[in-house]
Write a structure and sequence with these properties.
4-stranded antiparallel sheet, binds flavin mononucleotide
Length: 276
């Protein structure tokens, strides 16, 4: 990218990301360009990943930082049509889970630590605490996001599948997960169907997210501009115009809105995660 092109790209990407033209970047590069162009892709061409691409993506995932280098995560690549179909049913019937050429399932995985602790004769008491759970979930998330960015840089698209937690027990059974391991989310991956036009989804104005020195509390009407921008995005996408504030409030309004995930705690305790 020459400097003129870089400046033009930066302006375009920032404007798309916020649906506002109040930010500028002093410098730009291909990494930033890939990151700011992110959008979740839910429709794929019927084409498998090229040979070696999955392994390249997982190498990028394994390059993510890891708490104390415990590397407390694993990933399961599911390509089998019948298994994808079963996992799709467990994930609220989401079509793209069955349709994507590959579904990656990211696992918070403390089973290796359990194994090496037992072999070294140590008690692994730390696994009884919520701290270990956070370590494993965060490790899985950092790895997954590296994987997604790597995939996008190679022209693939993907979408996280949090609904993989709707029936965590059945997913664990389908993937034959050991104790101390839990499927945090899935990620569909494939080559985007070029026939499906999509824009990037705008994010909250940066001043609501970036705090300087100390936290600045937001008032309810600080979100009005974002509601407008997101409504504009949804209208462009021919989607129902819903306010972000309404959507966010509804997402966590009651237990029913958790779509099965309200029983994660007893499930995790049964699987060997202590959550003290
Ligand atoms: C942990 C996590 C779980 C998600 N679960 C789902 C899901 O089950 N189904 C889906 O279609 N999108 C899912 N998404 C995608 C989000 O809806 C999407 O990232 C968000 O609306 C922002 O849109 P964008 O990714 O296109 O920028 C999930 C995203 C994350 C980070």
């Amino acid at each position: 990218m020459d400097s003129w092109d870089a400046g033009r790209r930066a302006r375009m990407r920032l404007e798309e990301r916020y649906r506002a033209a109040d930010l500028s970047a002093p410098t730009w590069n291909d990494v930033l360009d890939t990151m700011l162009a992110h959008r979740s892709v839910r429709t794929y061409r019927d084409a498998p990943l090229q040979r070696g691409v999955l392994e390249t993506i997982v190498a990028a995932a394994q390059s993510a930082p890891s708490s104390s280098n415990l590397q407390a995560w694993s990933v399961i690549a599911v390509r089998d049509r019948d298994r994808k179909a079963r996992l799709s049913r467990l994930a609220a019937g989401q079509r793209h889970v069955a349709q994507a050429p590959v579904l990656l399932v990211f696992v918070a995985d403390l089973s290796r630590v359990r194994t090496v602790s037992a072999a070294s004769g140590r008690a692994a008491e730390g696994l009884d605490y919520i701290e270990s759970f956070i370590i494993a979930v965060a490790d899985a998330a950092f790895a997954a996001q590296n994987a997604l960015t790597a995939a996008e840089s190679l022209g693939l698209g993907g979408c996280y599948i949090g609904a993989m937690r709707n029936d965590a027990q059945a997913v664990a059974r389908e993937l034959d997960l050991p104790d101390d391991a839990f499927a945090v989310f899935g990620m569909t991956l494939g080559y985007p169907d070029a026939g499906v036009a999509a824009q990037v989804k705008p994010r909250l104005p940066q001043q609501l997210v970036l705090h300087h020195e100390q936290y600045r509390r937001a008032a309810a009407d600080d979100f009005t501009a974002y509601d407008d921008r997101l409504r504009g995005f949804r209208s462009d996408q021919q989607m129902a115009e819903i306010d972000w504030t309404d959507q966010a409030a509804r997402r966590l309004a009651d237990k029913k809105a958790l779509t099965g995930r309200e029983s994660l705690r007893p499930f995790l305790l049964r699987r060997g995660f202590g959550l003290q």
